[in-house]
UniProtKB/TrEMBL annotation:
One of its GO terms (molecular function) is ATP hydrolysis activity. It comes from Natrinema salifodinae. It is a peripheral membrane protein. This is ABC-type D-xylose/L-arabinose transporter. Gene3D superfamilies: 2.40.50.100, Nucleic acid-binding proteins, P-loop containing nucleotide triphosphate hydrolases. Its EC number is 7.5.2.13. Belongs to the ABC transporter superfamily. Carbohydrate uptake transporter-1 (CUT1) (TC 3.A.1.1) family.
Length: 367
């Protein structure tokens, strides 16, 4: 079992409120990712679960037992940190075994067997006699994981464990970690500021900003139904386009375009006045002007390309609706075969089903 409940948890450091009133129920066996920008309170939340910080208010439970004042050693958790925290003077074997030595229940032979089994699972059995200084970053990462796994805890807590790896290794380790977590079935709380990591790894994602919980949901739920503008901007790469404007009798009127509402949008917007229209770059369709007909539909716009970034499989295209200033109104993602060049005149279409609308004053999603 490894159910974790955060019940109105708040943590203050003097005048700084690091985490405010966070309530969250993490299921047994779940892979939960805490994500948000630097300083949003991710690590503090994790450290409260670990017992490295005591909550200022609220309660923390693991498997129903009250944890607020229980020392980390008595919580049946294992932590993996960004800097691995390996002992440099110990071999890999000793480092992994160290995770077991605090627990009196194992004989020396059992400890050796467990270390060997975990090392084999992680593919580091040929490194057991080396010291951390003789290992690559990825290998050190595996040793840190080994030290956590060997204890067979109820809960893994991981704070940016892949942050020090290069992009390729990080992506490989993401997959390995996910596989490992699903094989072991151990409840895992994973902190990252990287939205791609959150989207690809989490069963559910918790988005934090400024100490406040913004939204909890499955990755695609956050992508398709962000609760507010912050989540909409944080999840998804390239970032969602946001256009400020107002509600003018059945249409959004912004600086760069006027967008008539269909029934769904009109219902959602109601009588809100200030609006922000949100459109994901992948939902913006771009065609060369000469390929489009002369008459434009209500959700089509003439624009000009200011910059095209080529990524191989796709292009990211910046578009302006302003002849004079080149002020970018929108970014679009087009597939790699579909090339438009700088200065091309294009027709952009955005289907109403792909449009999000946020209250301009509160940032809350209207749809
Ligand atoms: P990062 O991604 O940069 O690690 P984070 O989301 O993990 O950030 P926290 O480390 O939880 O954020 O910090 C949240 C807020 O609490 C920040 O404003 C931080 O400066 C503050 N804070 C964290 N720990 C302490 C501390 N021990 N004393 C005072 N303030 C702290």
């Amino acid at each position: 079992m490894g159910r974790i409940q955060l019940d109105h948890l708040t943590k203050r450091f003097g005048d700084t409120v690091a985490v405010e009133d966070v309530t969250l129920d993490i299921e047994d066996g779940e892979f939960l990712v805490l994500v948000g920008p630097s300083g949003c309170g991710k690590s503090t939340t994790l450290r409260m679960v670990a017992g490295l910080e005591t909550p200022s208010e609220g309660n923390l439970y693991i498997d129903g037992a009250h944890m607020n004042y229980r020392v980390p050693q008595n919580r049946d958790i294992a932590m993996v940190f960004q800097d691995y925290a390996l002992y440099p003077h110990m071999t890999v074997r000793e480092n992994i075994r160290f995770g077991l030595e605090e627990e009196a229940e194992y004989t020396a032979a059992e400890m050796d067997d467990r270390v060997a089994a975990v090392a084999a699972d992680l593919g580091i059995d040929d490194l057991l006699d080396r010291k951390p200084g003789e290992l690559s970053g990825g290998q050190q990462q595996r040793v840190a994981l080994g030290r956590a796994i060997v204890r067979d805890p109820e809960v893994f807590l991981m704070d940016e464990p892949l942050a020090n790896l290069d992009a390729k290794l990080r992506s490989q380790m993401r997959t390995e970690l996910q596989q490992l977590q699903s094989d072991l079935g151990v409840t895992t709380v994973y902190v990252t500021h990287n939205q791609t990591e959150a989207m690809t790894m989490g069963d559910r994602i918790v988005v934090l900003n400024d100490g406040h919980l913004q939204q909890v949901g499955e990755p695609l739920e956050l992508y398709h139904e962000p609760a507010n503008r912050f989540v909409a901007g944080f999840i998804g790469e390239p970032m969602m386009n946001f256009l400020r404007g107002r509600n003018d009798d059945g249409a959004f009127v912004g600086d760069y375009l006027e967008y008539p509402f269909d029934e769904r949008l009109a219902d959602a917007v109601g009588d809100a006045d200030e609006l922000v229209l949100g459109v994901r770059p992948e939902a913006v369709d771009v065609r060369r002007a000469e390929a489009a007909g002369s008459a434009l539909g209500p959700h089509e716009f003439r624009m000009r390309v200011t910059v095209t970034e080529t990524h191989g499989d796709q292009n990211v295209v910046s578009l302006t609706a302003d002849e004079e200033t080149d002020h970018d109104a929108l970014r679009a993602v087009t597939d790699g075969m579909h090339v438009v060049d700088q200065s091309d005149s294009v027709v952009v279409s955005i289907v109403p089903d792909a449009v999000h609308v946020f209250d301009g004053a509160t940032g809350d999603a209207l749809c």
